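Project standup — Tuesday

K.O.: blocked on the structure for the chain from last sprint. Re-posting the sequence here as requested.
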Amino acid sequence: MKCVMVVDAGLPLGLLANTVAVLAISVGRNVPEIVGEDVLDRDGTRHAGITEATVPLLKGDSDLIKSLRERLLALPESSLYFVDFCDAAQQSKRYKDYRARLSQTASEDLHYLGIAIYGEEKEVNRLTGSIGLLR
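H.V.: unblocked you, prediction finished:
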């Protein structure tokens, strides 16, 4: 299994970090098997489980992210899980504000800041293999 995140490389650092954090929390909630078990160090101190998979951050822009989202939605019976993060979410202080804002916004008017995709490595690579790493 593989997880990648494609984020808008033009975002200021703080918004980029926020986008990645939101996507990571969402993937962790909806794909619990991605998080490993707690680990003890030599002294017996517990360290909470972290992701078992590497999560490459790929550079994109809003149009690329929107295109990936549309391709994912068009896949029949896809085994891929994905979550997107858009300007409606970024501009909302609370989840209820996001829900209200999103319900009043047409899909075509959303500006996408990031997307996380999780699933079979071959399928994830087919969609994202040509996208460069965010450096």
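K.O.: great, moving the ticket to review. The longest strand covers residues 112-119. The mean pLDDT is 95.
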